[in-house]
Design brief:
Length: 343
């Protein structure tokens, strides 16, 4: 399959939008940018399109997809109800990096998009290009991250192109994703709500709007994941990664470090071996926004550098602010953790 590229960083033309709409209406797949990561989009009403999403990614069919919309008016087509509490959260955080799991109204979306559940996760992206496409197409678009299943999610056009060129009808070339990590997924099928996947919108932020509305974390329902990233291996580069914690002083020069990378805050650069590959993760240990933004790009860059055979990536200890970052990093590292004193 020949994959077309639409360049929309500086200009969005009516012709390009019409072509993209035609692809979605024909049940083809188009990669679109969002503020979290690039999404592999397909018409959520088309069984053929959703089947193609799973095939293009190599994704297990019981791993549910998130449906992307541009207007709350679209919810009435496929959601049974939206409680006043959820509506309040939507007004506070949409458009933005949070998905709400809601009770499904059968008959509008194809069955395959839910992964066999009677609920559906819905999101309204804020990225100007992705949002303009959704408005023009005016269809609910299922859009998991635009990468091969298990690989790091794409935050740049090149990441998506490297994984999916030849597998999809087209890819939209937009800016680098601002957030850099997938959306928070909030299960609203029970109350208090439960965070099914951490993201940029934290429990504290949600409870600033609705006090005492979030309790614990949800898992599988009847053996099925209720949100992406819960059941299967995710986010892992080919390069072996280890989480590095408690870096309280210089790492000894007692090993051959020349093929090892250290991705740590710039304030800690002086503590990594000089012959190693230093990768700036963020400014300092409080700079979580930059760490979130840069993590997936770093994971992709590790695989593109032939001189790097393994890497240590800094693990933050601030549990609430770093929850989403550490969730992705621990999976990428297959739970491998060392302290600075152990190197």
């Amino acid at each position: 399959m020949e994959t077309k590229v639409w360049h929309m960083r500086d200009h969005i033309s009516e012709q390009d939008l019409a072509e993209i709409k035609g692809q979605f209406e024909a049940s083809e797949l188009v990669v679109i940018p969002t503020e979290t990561v690039y999404g592999l989009g397909g018409n959520a009403c088309s069984d053929e399109a959703v089947k193609r999403i799973y095939e293009a990614k190599g994704r297990p069919s019981d791993n549910p997809l998130i449906v992307h919309i541009h207007s709350m008016d679209q919810l009435g087509d496929f959601v049974q109800k939206v409680s006043p509490e959820v509506q309040e959260l939507m007004r506070a955080f949409w458009p933005g990096p949070i998905s709400f799991i809601l009770p499904l109204k059968a008959g509008y979306l194809c069955e395959r998009v839910t992964g066999g559940l009677n609920s559906i996760a819905v999101r309204m992206p804020s990225h100007p290009v992705g949002r303009r496409i959704l408005q023009y197409v005016n269809l609910p678009i299922a859009a998991p991250s635009a990468n091969l299943s298990g690989r790091p999610s794409p935050t740049m056009f090149q990441h998506a192109f490297d994984d999916l060129n030849g597998r999809v009808a087209g890819i939209v070339n937009g800016d680098q994703s601002e957030e850099g990590l997938e959306s928070t997924v909030l299960d609203c099928t029970t109350y208090p709500f439960q965070i099914a996947r951490p993201g940029a919108i934290t429990k504290k932020m949600i409870e600033t709007v609705l006090p005492h509305s979030v309790e614990g974390k949800s898992g599988l329902k009847d053996g099925k994941p209720i949100a992406p990233g819960m059941k299967y291996k995710h986010y892992a580069p080919d390069t072996p990664v280890t989480v590095l914690t408690q870096l309280n002083g210089p790492i000894p020069n007692n090993k051959d470090w020349q093929h090892i990378a250290f991705a740590v805050p710039q304030t800690l650069q002086g503590w990594v071996p000089k012959e190693s590959h230093f990768i700036p993760l963020c400014d300092d240990e409080e700079d979580m926004k930059a760490a979130n933004h840069n993590l997936y790009r770093i994971l992709h860059d590790l695989d593109s550098d032939d001189e790097i055979t393994s890497a240590y990536i800094y693990g933050f200890t601030n549990e609430s602010r770093a929850e989403a970052y550490m969730n992705r990093l621990m999976k990428a590292a297959n739970q491998e953790v060392v302290t600075g004193d152990e190197l």
